[in-house]
């Protein structure tokens, strides 16, 4: 397991004990106590931060989710009302549908694009570092700037893509202004920004032992066979890691959609939902409930539902991963 | 045939792909130098005939670019310092110190990675607003010093720390070195590559952060670049040439940073245990 692998394997320090006398045992005990103290000291800042900025707000959020908390009115316990609201509210359903679209489509697309580019870079070609840089840069362009660039690139009349399509006599779609094309536009944008995923895959690919490929050559495997039987199994722990990180990211998908929906709308549009609600993602609705409508109770309940879904999906992925993730012997 | 398969095809694909990846950014630069007329020209113009450098000057005149950059720089550097203080400490505590809480600590770190930002968002906002800290940089910077939201970075650090031989630490202990000394004089120097990688990653993500500043900053004077650009965009949403010039100005510093940190960043990522 990627992160469980080493956590237990480091032996307890065996301090030299030459005799099993009482004094030595005492020393061992003292040593252990001292270790516990040092451990606590080193972990101290993180633990304080965890209590203050993670554990407390997580608990508070659970509590708020059962109240009508809204910053202005006195707080009242309303039981499961907020959860009932989640089930009954039409916009929640829309936002879940939109979010599932991103999770189901954007995750494999980002992983596939990232892996494809990493494999291209893993060949011995000249100028590798220049190509690597070109692939990576889009992923570090700040979200606001990349959203702006794509809004302009996808501009129906004067944007780059439709202009290029026009040369071939194709009339491009309305992209961000057409409900059917908003999410594909986002996928395009996210695929362009998958350099972060690429870089980690590249590091993993460079670790795959040459000997495995040589053995496959001797067995007469083709390129495709090598990909399925050597590359994929060798990097499967990394695929698992990136899969989970991507799933988490897309469940919480926010910034790009926020930019695109608040900027494509003309005038002060507070709905932040894009054409025909096509960009109303779960995290967008949650933000709107919390900081536009100040229904902190709704938002907190939504956050907990998101937490539970993320937890369940991560757990399911871990469970199934035993079937497809292989850990090479060390 | 074999050279064709091994050299030509990957090379062509690489050139093609990098062209596709570079095009939007080139389009950004080209637009930022266009005049209003060229902007909507049909057929489109890819290289402006008469580069309008004043578009950049215009941005300087409408938004206080230096102040925004200074603010963003301040927050980003503070966040980097914060994570680089709290992160390695926690990573050391769950790699080379054998204490009772070691595995629990690691479980907590992993759990914080899985916890959606949205869960803590509302109560933290309430907390900071009760402490009258909304509108200051404290909510954006303080959590970093206490390792909050840094689960992924601590995880990276720990994976690297584990690659250092435990015997090294033990030997130092037997020689009577204090933990603080082992940490400062042995662990940290050996971990320079991964520590700087984490530093760069924190800088990149804080520099581009949007939601944090959106929640906590409410005065134009304290805005970051992301927020400033967002506000600018809401008032100038048709002047694409200026928007693109502003975006370019926002993006260029980060690309320069990347060029300097590139080797470090990529080596660091391959060094951490994340490779498998």
Provide the CATH top-level class of the largest domain in chain B. Answer: Mainly Alpha
CATH topology of the largest domain in chain A: MetI-like fold
Overall structural class of chain B, as computed from helix and strand content, comes to mainly alpha
Identify the most extensive interface between protein chains: A-B, 106 and 107 residues
Largest sheet of chain B: none
The biggest beta sheet of chain A reads:
none
Q: Mean pLDDT of chain A, nearest integer?
A: 84
CATH class of the largest domain in chain A: Mainly Alpha
Name given to the CATH homologous superfamily of the largest domain in chain A: MetI-like
Tell me the number of structural domains of chain B: 2
Total DSSP E strands of chain B: 0
What's the CATH H-level homologous superfamily of the largest domain in chain B?
MetI-like
Specify the helix fraction band of chain A. Answer: 55-70%
User: What portion of the residues of chain B fall into strands of 2 or more residues?
Assistant: under 5%
* Residue share in helix of chain B: over 70%
- How many domains would you count in the coordinates of chain A? 2
* Low-pLDDT windows of residues of chain B: none
Q: What ranges of chain A have pLDDT less than 50 throughout 5 or more consecutive residues?
A: 1-21
Structural class by helix and strand composition of chain A: mainly alpha
Give the end-to-end Cα distance of chain A, rounded to a whole number of Å. 13 Å
Membrane topology (chain B): Multi-pass membrane protein
Domain ABC transmembrane type-1 (chain B): 69-261
Protein name (chain B): ABC transporter permease subunit
Transmembrane segments (chain B): 12-30, 73-92, 104-128, 140-161, 182-207, 243-261
């Amino acid at each position: 397991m990627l992160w469980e692998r080493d956590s237990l394997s480091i032996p307890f320090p065996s301090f030299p004990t030459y005799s099993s006398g009482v004094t030595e045992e005492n020393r061992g005990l003292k040593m252990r106590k001292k270790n516990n103290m040092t451990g606590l000291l080193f972990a101290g800042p993180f633990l304080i931060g965890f209590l203050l900025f993670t554990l407390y707000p997580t608990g508070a959020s659970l509590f708020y989710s059962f109240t009508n908390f809204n910053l202005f009115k006195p707080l009242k316990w309303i039981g499961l009302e907020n959860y009932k609201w989640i089930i009954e509210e039409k916009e929640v359903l829309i936002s879940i549908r939109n979010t599932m679209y991103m999770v189901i489509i954007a995750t494999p697309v980002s992983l596939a694009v990232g892996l494809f580019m990493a494999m291209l870079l893993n060949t011995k070609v000249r100028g590798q570092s220049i190509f690597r840089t070109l692939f990576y840069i889009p992923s570090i362009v700040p979200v606001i700037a990349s959203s702006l660039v794509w809004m302009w690139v996808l501009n129906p009349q004067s944007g780059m893509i439709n202009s290029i399509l026009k040369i071939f006599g194709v009339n491009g779609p309305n992209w961000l202004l057409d409900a059917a094309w908003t999410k594909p536009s986002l996928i395009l944008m996210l695929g362009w920004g998958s350099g972060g995923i690429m870089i980690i895959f590249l590091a993993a690919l460079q670790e795959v032992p040459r000997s495995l490929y040589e053995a496959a050559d001797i067995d007469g495997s083709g390129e495709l066979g090598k990909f399925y039987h050597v590359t994929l199994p060798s990097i499967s722990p990394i695929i698992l890691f990136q899969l989970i990180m991507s799933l988490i990211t897309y469940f919480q998908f926010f910034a790009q959609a926020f930019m695109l929906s608040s900027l494509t709308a003309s005038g002060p549009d507070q709905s932040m939902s894009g054409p025909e609600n096509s960009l109303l993602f779960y995290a967008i609705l949650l933000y709107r409930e919390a900081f536009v409508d100040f229904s902190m109770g709704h938002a907190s309940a939504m956050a907990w539902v998101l937490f539970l879904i993320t937890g369940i999906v991560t757990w399911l992925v871990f469970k199934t991963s035993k079937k497809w993730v292989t850990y090479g012997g060390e | 045939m074999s050279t064709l398969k091994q050299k030509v095809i990957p090379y062509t694909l690489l050139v093609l792909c990098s062209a596709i990846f570079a095009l939007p950014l080139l389009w950004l630069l080209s637009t930022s130098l266009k005049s209003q007329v060229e902007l909507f020209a049909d057929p489109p113009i890819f290289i402006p005939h008469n580069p309008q450098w004043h578009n950049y000057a215009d941005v300087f005149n409408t938004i206080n670019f230096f102040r925004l950059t200074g603010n963003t720089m301040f927050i980003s550097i503070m966040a980097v310092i914060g994570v680089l203080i709290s992160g390695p400490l926690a990573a050391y505590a769950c790699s080379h110190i054998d204490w009772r809480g070691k595995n629990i600590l690691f479980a907590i770190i992993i759990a914080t990675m899985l916890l959606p930002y949205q869960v803590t968002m509302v109560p933290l906002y309430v907390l900071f607003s009760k402490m009258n800290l909304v509108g200051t940089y404290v909510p954006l910077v303080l959590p970093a010093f206490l390792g909050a939201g840094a689960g992924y970075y601590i995880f990276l650090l720990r994976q690297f720390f584990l690659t250092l031989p435990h015997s090294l630490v033990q030997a130092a202990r037997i020689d009577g070195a204090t933990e603080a000394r082992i940490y400062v004089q042995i662990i940290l120097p050996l971990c320079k590559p991964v520590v700087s990688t984490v530093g760069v990653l924190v800088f990149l993500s804080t520099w581009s952060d949007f939601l944090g500043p959106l929640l906590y900053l409410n005065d134009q004077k304290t805005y970051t670049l992301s927020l400033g650009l967002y506000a600018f965009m809401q008032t100038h949403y048709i002047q694409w040439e200026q928007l693109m010039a502003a975006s370019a100005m926002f993006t260029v510093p980060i690309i320069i940073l990347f060029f300097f940190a590139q080797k470090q960043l990529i080596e660091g990522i391959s060094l951490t245990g994340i490779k498998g």
